[in-house]
Hints:
- By secondary structure, the chain is an alpha/beta fold.
- It is built from eleven helices and 18 strands.
- The strands form four sheets. The chain has a seven-stranded mixed beta sheet. The protein has a seven-stranded mixed beta sheet with strand order 7-8-9-13-14-15-16, covered by helices on one side. The chain has a two-stranded antiparallel sheet with strand order 10-11.
- The longest helix has 12 residues, at 95-106.
- It is globular, with a radius of gyration of 22 Å.
- The two termini are 31 Å apart.
- Mean pLDDT is 93; it is low at 313-322.
Amino acid sequence: MQITFLGTSSGVPTRSRNVSSVALRLSQRAELWLLDCGEGTQHQILRSELKVSQLSRIFITHMHGDHIFGLMGLLASCGLAGNVDRVDIYGPAGLNDYLQACSRYSHTHFSYPVKVHTVKPGIIYEDDEYTVVCNQLHHRVTAFGYRIVEKDRTGRFDVEKAKAMQIPPGRVYGQLKRGETVTLNDGRVIHGSELCGPTEIGRKIAYCTDTVYCDTAVELAEDADVLIHEATFAHQDSEMAFQRLHSTTTMAAQTALVAGAHRLIMTHFSPRYAPGNAIELKDLLQEARAIFPKTEMAYDFMNYEVPRRRAKELSAVSSANN
């Protein structure tokens, strides 16, 4: 699971930052998911190592332009290129009407299936490997945050050990790989756990923007390996943040801290903190780290490989804490 930040500015693009979009590359299944799709997202994809042909799902947080104005252009280009099989789009009420109107007035017709799913709090997508949950945030318009959870996987199967134990290959290997208990023809009972490494704990990503501090964001970020959270304003400008229902750096950090997240990556920065101004982005990072040290500041084309935790590692941490 690799995260690529395609746009990290709020409201309007700057010379160095495009507006909101985050890509999640699921390399093991050659899929690309997007979180938001601000204007120029397709240009950012072209400048990255991402393959638009792998695009399969897009999750939209809310209907403000800096999060959706790139959507129609990207979908239209995918249709002209003819290299996308199907795209499922998830977002708030009104998203389907918006795309239908764009299609009608621009006379754009997709050459591939596009399905829009209107979301509500709860599970909005699930397959054998992933579950996606959304919850409503606190913004000026209806806005949702998303939590993407990779399901736990049985550890690596030790083929050499199985051979040494004279376990016949075939269907039995598959059962043992899944962690099942098998009785062999000679009467031996073999537990899959004896031949598999530590359970690979599913990774968790939370994406919360746009919002002021709220309990639902904390719920989405609980025990997340990485929380991507907006930090539009510096703490000094908290009054403005409350008026516009956006987050400060300290709100993002507090969300990560209370949720027990393992890493915070801030994004969606106001252009007012450009170099040379009284408050710069480096100051925002210091504010957040004072509350939550494991904080990073996203920039366009930043890549982050989400680390995997294993069951033994978690047990060791738990024992140390006790």
